[in-house]
Inverse folding.
């Protein structure tokens, strides 16, 4: 064997080099082909989006029949592009235009395409099918149970899309269960959760109390992570669910005001202030201004500025010297609202003239724009 290797060493080396050369060429060709195919697919997608977008808008406006849209649905990509366009238009259209978009989701070829994707077992395909189901007028009850199972899937895209469909078509308890699954799924972003909660608010006036009760139930749920709890409190605050005030007041005194999570404490401070609960002032002045968490001190500064009580001035002057810029800014912004405060006299010696001028300049700009 050794003699064979010695006598054929040159041939073996040439063969290895030649093999590696052809392997490199093959890899390069495959890379170039993949890139060409991807660019070709992107160019076609752009072209299809332009054509379908124009046709769908004209169809929604009543200028052309639905058949003029159908004849452009030839490949798999076309149906995906159509769904994306419909989702975008659905946010801005109403009345007859929105009803026509709904009819487009009921076309037989569209139904067959997305039904196949729903059964594919591929999370991305199934997610797109769920979004299609959300756009339909109604769906079969057997789909509901499958959607419920998908809402607890590990894949965040599929879980989001299934929950979106359940909010549109599920019963009240099914909507609530789907949202809870999403809240417990740490792989789903807060932005996506916020979007689903927003979809819940679009269901109509008859759901208004259900929305509030659902959100407060989740706030009280010990299994919901603190970050999600804070998000829910912010939603109650921003959506101005004033009829949730009694619940939030009780939650604040029993748990929220002394929660281990600074996110929850921050959220409940903002909510209590926005709902006009002045009884929170002693806690703001005695407890939260000394919190080790900057977001809590920042919320305390904002809340004291919101109430504009004279007794808060010393505490706000204290927070102007906070090492965290956001806390310092919120405290200075609050003090600027008091008529008898001379901003030039409250600057701490450790703050440079340049930094202080920048900070007060930002405050003036915010006031001009009507910001808080």
């Amino acid at each position: 064997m050794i003699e064979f290797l010695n006598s054929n060493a040159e041939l073996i080396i040439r063969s290895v080099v030649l093999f590696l050369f052809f392997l490199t060429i093959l890899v390069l060709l495959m890379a170039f082909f993949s890139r060409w195919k991807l660019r070709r697919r992107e160019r076609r997608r752009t072209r299809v989006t332009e054509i379908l977008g124009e046709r769908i808008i004209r169809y929604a406006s009543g200028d052309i029949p639905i058949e003029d849209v159908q004849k452009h649905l030839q490949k798999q990509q076309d149906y995906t592009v159509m769904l994306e366009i419909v989702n975008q238009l659905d946010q801005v259209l109403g009345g007859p235009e929105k009803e026509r978009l709904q009819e487009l989701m009921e076309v037989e070829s569209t139904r067959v395409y997305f039904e196949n994707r729903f059964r594919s077992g591929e999370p991305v395909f199934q997610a797109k099918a769920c979004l299609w189901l959300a756009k339909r007028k109604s769906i079969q009850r057997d789909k509901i149970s499958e959607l419920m199972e998908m809402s607890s899937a590990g894949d965040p895209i599929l879980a989001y899309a299934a929950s979106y469909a359940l909010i549109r078509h599920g019963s009240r308890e099914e909507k609530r269960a789907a949202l809870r699954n999403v809240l417990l799924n740490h792989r789903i972003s807060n932005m996506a959760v916020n979007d689903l909660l927003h979809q819940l608010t679009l269901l109509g006036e008859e759901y208004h109390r259900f929305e509030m009760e659902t959100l407060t139930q989740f706030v009280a749920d010990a299994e919901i992570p603190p970050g999600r709890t804070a998000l829910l409190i912010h939603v109650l605050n921003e959506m101005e669910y004033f009829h949730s005030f009694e619940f939030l007041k009780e939650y604040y005194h029993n748990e929220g005001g002394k929660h281990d999570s600074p996110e929850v404490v921050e959220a409940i401070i903002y909510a209590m202030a926005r709902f006009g609960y002045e009884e929170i002032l002693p806690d703001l002045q005695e407890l939260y201004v000394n919190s080790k968490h900057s977001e809590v001190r920042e919320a305390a500064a904002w809340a004291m500025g919101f109430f504009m009580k004279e007794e808060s001035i010393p505490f706000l002057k204290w927070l102007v010297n906070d090492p965290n810029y956001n806390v310092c800014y919120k405290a200075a912004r609050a003090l600027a609202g008091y008529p008898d405060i001379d901003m030039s006299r409250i600057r701490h010696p450790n703050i440079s003239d340049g930094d202080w001028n920048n900070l007060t300049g930002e405050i003036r700009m915010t006031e001009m724009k009507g910001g808080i």
